[in-house]
């Protein structure tokens, strides 16, 4: 199977998995949020957001090294990665335990410490499962990845809802998280037949860390954006507001399943185009168009219908979610234009360029959040999200310097049309007219047909 067929094949499975996962998540989150309410959901969201960031620091970017390395499928590389991740998990447990009092004093959320400790103990399980997962991703075996992740997701909601309906509050999703990670650990090791052992080769460690530090620095900075909700919203507005922002983010992320699938696939796929800059930039141009066409309609429909379905599905106490959702969706739409820029720079080893972009992005986000949240409340988070759009000029300039400029004309027009259409209740329903005009353009119709044909072709090939 050639590269294009492999990418389409893997992309279809990831898109299907993310699509089914979106439905499961929507139903599961709906039941979970109704069972535990905004305050308890906010407590879990704040705690999990901080744990998730800590977990990603401990990974050191080693998994991405495994996915993109050009060597044969050498066991020693995976053994060394396993050893490093095991060591990092132990260090993470110690450092996390020491950090709990400091974080508790800042966030001021009752019950934070115990929940964080429970999540922290899952760190070795989470990190060590990444080694067999990386082997599957390196082989573009997204079919098996997709179904195993679905099993893990189902396990999460089965256990989380069982505890939540018994009055467990924020402990429901904590138990669900543990169930999911244990399922994933067992399934990934069973599927790959990987038998880990400890080893230490100084040259290989140096090589791994040398690549990983550049990648990790950019990722660590970028993921600071997920700390704005627990650290800034939590401190100034409390656990309920954290819950509203977390649910708005969750809805946007579920609708952005195509973007998630594309990013995961792009690292492995673009790595095979890194020696052909013309094909690389064309892949980025095409990817931008497909991202917006796939993501824009879903985000927009929810923005239009949200004020009606939110009280019906989640309960009236969750209606404030729609105050901030359009802003988060607009920020996600802008980000989808530049997802492949970062992927391309990563595979070209321009990790520090991506890190600079991330630093500017985070400074804008945190600065705007600190400025607006105490003054205008929940919608201040939305304005902080929009402020980050200015940072994408940086990642564009790095791509032009190292590859070339993709063609933004069509994708940019679509992004603007969908972005404005997210705000009919704030700006008026006239914004829909521009979207209708853009969608009726012949080029839009052509791309939609091409997207459908590519999907069917890859599905039939599978």
Explain this structure:
By secondary structure, the chain is an all-alpha fold. It has one domain. It contains 22 helices and no strands. Helix 11 packs across helix 14. The longest helix is centred in the N-terminal third of the chain and has 57 residues. The radius of gyration is 22 Å and the shape is globular. The N and C termini lie close together (11 Å).
Q: Any key phrases for this structure?
A:
about 450 residues; mainly alpha; about 85% helix; disordered N terminus
Summarize the structure.
By secondary structure, the protein is an all-alpha fold.
Helix count, DSSP H or I runs of 4 or more residues:
22
Strand content: under 5%
Helix and strand element order: HHHHHHHHHHHHHHHHHHHHHH
How many DSSP-defined strands? 0
Number of domains: 1
State the share of residues found in helices, binned by percent.
over 70%
Give the arrangement of secondary structure elements.
Elements: H1 3-59, H2 62-68, H3 75-107, H4 112-120, H5 123-128, H6 130-138, H7 142-164, H8 171-192, H9 202-222, H10 228-237, H11 239-255, H12 257-271, H13 277-313, H14 321-337, H15 339-347, H16 351-376, H17 379-387, H18 392-402, H19 409-421, H20 424-427, H21 431-439, H22 442-461
Helix pairs in contact: 1-3, 1-4, 1-7, 1-10, 1-11, 1-12, 1-22, 2-6, 3-4, 6-8, 7-8, 9-16, 10-11, 10-16, 11-14, 12-13, 12-15, 13-14, 13-15, 13-19, 14-17, 14-19, 15-18, 16-17, 16-18, 19-21
């Amino acid at each position: 199977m050639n590269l294009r067929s492999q990418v389409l094949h893997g992309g279809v499975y990831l898109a299907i998995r993310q699509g089914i996962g979106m439905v499961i998540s929507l139903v599961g989150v709906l039941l979970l949020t109704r069972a535990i309410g905004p305050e308890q959901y906010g407590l879990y969201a704040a705690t999990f957001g901080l744990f998730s960031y800590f977990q990603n620091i401990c990974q050191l970017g080693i998994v991405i090294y495994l996915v993109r390395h050009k060597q044969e499928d050498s066991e020693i590389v995976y053994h060394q990665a396993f050893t490093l991740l095991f060591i990092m998990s132990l260090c993470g447990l110690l450092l996390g335990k020491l950090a709990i009092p400091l974080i508790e004093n800042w966030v001021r959320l009752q019950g934070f410490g115990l929940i964080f400790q429970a999540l922290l103990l899952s760190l070795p399980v989470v990190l060590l499962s990444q080694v067999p997962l990386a082997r599957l991703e390196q082989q573009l075996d997204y079919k098996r990845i997709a179904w195993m992740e679905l099993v893990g997701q189902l396990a999460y909601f089965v256990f989380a809802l069982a505890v939540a309906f018994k009055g467990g509050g924020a402990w429901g999703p904590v138990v669900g998280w543990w169930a999911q990670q244990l399922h994933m650990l067992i399934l990934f090791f069973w599927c790959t037949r990987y038998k880990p052992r400890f080893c230490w080769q100084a040259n290989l460690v140096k090589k791994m860390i040398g690549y990983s530090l550049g990648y990790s620095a950019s990722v660590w900075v970028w993921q600071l954006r997920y700390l704005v909700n627990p650290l800034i919203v939590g401190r100034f507005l409390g656990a309920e507001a954290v819950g509203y922002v977390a649910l708005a983010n969750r809805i946007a992320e579920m609708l952005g399943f195509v973007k998630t699938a594309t990013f995961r696939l792009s690292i492995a796929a673009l790595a095979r185009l890194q020696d052909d800059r013309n094909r690389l930039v064309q892949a980025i141009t095409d990817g931008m168009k497909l991202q917006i066409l796939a993501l824009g309609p879903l985000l927009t429909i929810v923005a239009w219908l949200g004020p009606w379905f939110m009280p019906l599905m989640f309960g009236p106490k969750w209606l404030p979610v729609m105050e901030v959702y359009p802003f988060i969706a607009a920020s996600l739409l802008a980000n989808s234009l530049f997802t492949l820029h970062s992927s391309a720079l990563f595979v070209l080893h321009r990790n520090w360029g991506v890190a600079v972009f991330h630093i500017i992005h985070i400074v804008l986000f945190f600065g705007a959040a600190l400025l607006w949240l105490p003054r205008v409340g929940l919608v201040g988070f939305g304005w902080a999200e929009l402020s980050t759009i200015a940072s994408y000029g940086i990642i564009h300039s790095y791509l032009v310097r190292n590859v070339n400029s993709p063609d933004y004309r069509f994708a940019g027009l679509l992004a603007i049309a969908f972005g404005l259409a997210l705000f009919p209740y704030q700006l008026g329903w006239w914004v829909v007219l521009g979207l209708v005009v853009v969608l009726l353009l012949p080029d839009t119709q052509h791309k939609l047909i091409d997207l459908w044909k590519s999907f069917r072709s890859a599905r039939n090939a599978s």
